[in-house]
Structure formats: structure tokens, C-alpha cells
Design brief:
5 helices; mainly alpha; DNA-binding; Arc Repressor Mutant, subunit A; 109 residues; 2 strands; homodimer; two-stranded antiparallel ribbon
Chain lengths: 109, 109
Amino acid sequence: MGASKTELHSTQHIRIAEIAKVLSHPARVAIMEHIASQQDCICSDLVEEIGLSQPTISQHLQVIRNAGLLKGNFEGKRLCYCLDAERLQEIQSLFNNFFNTSSANCCTL
Amino acid sequence: MGASKTELHSTQHIRIAEIAKVLSHPARVAIMEHIASQQDCICSDLVEEIGLSQPTISQHLQVIRNAGLLKGNFEGKRLCYCLDAERLQEIQSLFNNFFNTSSANCCTL
DNA sequence: ATTTAATATTGCAATATTACGATGTTAATT
DNA sequence: AATTAACATCGTAATATTGCAATATTAAAT
């Protein structure tokens, strides 16, 4: 098969998995950190910064964008990328919630 | 290619990506939550609980285990799975750290 | 209007993931 | 010792991901 059986899973679990998938590649983690570190929000140096080709970076950016984690102006010659702080906070809560409920009843092995 | 170019990335980013990959499938999120919810730590009902076949569940469990998130007795007729609470806490810090540094300097678009 | 710089899209190859049937392994039970 | 219950492993098919060269698009600069 290869495709995951999404109909089996809760929307909550699917949501966590979707976000985790964005973070499941070191290039995307690096891209997100780098965008966040830029005060002026001009991110045309990502290719040099990360070391992957321009199409590959563009592809990773789209994954981040599709998950709703990017804000900014996507048209024209120059981009102005920013992380969506609100979304980030939502996600952080989602993950913390998961970690807290998951570590709660752990047995004492 | 298809294989990620791990030599380009920092160990920190690779570590985050590794853990995120574990959480990037809803079945694994569900499995982890279910294991955590079991006080007695007997988890032979995962197949019925999740709705995937026994080999598939076993495969997902191995992914979780390989990331160092499972503790317990893996031999014999019956298993005794537990989430490794210490590791979970480590991971939670790792993620929170990432989120905090990433949302810090976000521009005001 | 051309050129140029920055990014997106397309097409494709290499590899990884997901899923399950069939089969192997292990230890308790009979 | 044979059976059984609970997992693991193997093999394999379907699909997804990763990466880049080539090409297209876009808007500013000339």
C-alpha cells in the first residue's frame, strides 16, 4: 500500500502527525529557525545558508507553507517570509498537551 | 535522490527531525497515547485499538522503540511496553526550545 | 521592451515509508 | 513434547519523500 489509513485515526492525532511531518526533515527545521532569526524578514539567502539547491529549498518552503506556518508576501521578485507566530503557539500547545498526557501514567519499569 | 543529505545539517536539527518523524504518523501518536494510558502496561490490545494489522503495529512500535521512547520487556509471549518518561521530557524540552527560539524574532506582517 | 535577480514549477530518478500476508520465534500452557 | 498466544521478521506492493536539472514565472532595474 504505502498510503496511511487516515480514516482510522482521530483528527487530533492526524493534526499532530501533520505538524510533526513538517518538522521531520532537518532542512525544514533549519529553514524555520533561520527565517525566525531574520529581523528584516528577507530570506533570499536560504540556499546558501542551508546548502541545498534552490528548487529543493523552494519545495521545503512549500511544505512549511502548506501546513500554515508561513506568513508573508509570496509574489514577485523578492519574498518576505515570516513564521506565523500564532500558529506556532497553537502547535506548541498541541505538542505540550500530547507530551503531558503521554507521560502521565507511565509505569515504573 | 530521495535520501536526505544529513551531512549538511546540525546534530540538533537532525535530532528534532528524528523525533518529529516518530510523531509524523497518526498511528504512532495513537499508539504512544494508548500505551501511556494503560496503568498495567500490558499492551496486547493495540491491534484492536488502532485498527491496523499486527505486523503494521509491530513495525510502528519498532520505530518508536528505535527512537528510544519505549521502555520495557520485549521478549517472550507477552510484552510490557512503557513510554520512557525521561526521554519524553527531554523531547518536550527540545521541542519547546525550538518553538521558543523560532517565535522570538518574528516580524510583524 | 530587455535584461536580470529571485523564486516557483515540472519532470524524473533514487530512496523511504506504509501496509499486510505468510512465516518465524518465543514462552507459557496443556 | 505438542499446542497455543503474542509478537517479530521477511518479502513485497503501493505510495510518498527527497533532491536536482531544466525551465517557467515574476517584478524590478536598465
